[in-house]
Design a protein that fits this description.
mainly alpha, about 75% helix
Length: about 150
């Protein structure tokens, strides 16, 4: 791999033409930017765990750099009591979609972390929701069934 100083020396010694020098210089710049991006990447596992436990107040989006989304979720959660908590339904669905489909931070940099663990957390989230809704449905049906036979 050629560094910038070596590239300059080769250009000054006329080993590289002007076009080759500019092309190699562009490649070095792209590699440097990619390295900075990898160093600033957020962890997808942390993002999902934050979304699962603190998603209603947007902590996961603050972590990933999505300040607008995070503030929107926080504001909707704060005003929810004045609107009979209906905004919480929307925020919950919004957070669920982010858990399932967001794969990069605000700068477009892909999340770091084991893809297997990230997918496992996504599947676990779906299973927890299905089990939770099933349990709630059983309780709801049991209450209706009991009320039907109470005189």
């Amino acid at each position: 791999m050629i560094d910038a100083d070596k590239l300059k020396e080769m250009h000054d010694a006329n080993v590289l033409s002007e076009e080759e020098y500019l092309e190699q210089k562009k490649r070095l710049a792209v590699k440097a930017i990619q390295q900075v991006d990898r160093n600033n990447a957020k962890n997808g596992i942390i993002y999902i765990v934050l979304a699962f436990f603190l998603g209603l107040i947007g902590v996961h989006n603050f972590y990933a750099g999505y300040w607008g989304r995070a503030l929107s979720q926080l504001c909707l959660t704060i005003i929810a009591p004045w609107f009979l908590f209906v905004p919480l339904i929307g925020v919950n669905l919004w957070v669920l979609m982010e858990i399932l489909f967001v794969n990069h931070g605000a700068g477009g940099i892909s999340f770091q972390g084991s893809r297997k663990i990230i997918w496992s957390l996504r599947i676990a989230t779906i299973l927890i929701l299905v089990i939770g809704f099933s349990g709630a449905n059983l309780v709801f049906n049991d209450v209706i069934f009991e009320e039907a036979f109470v005189y």
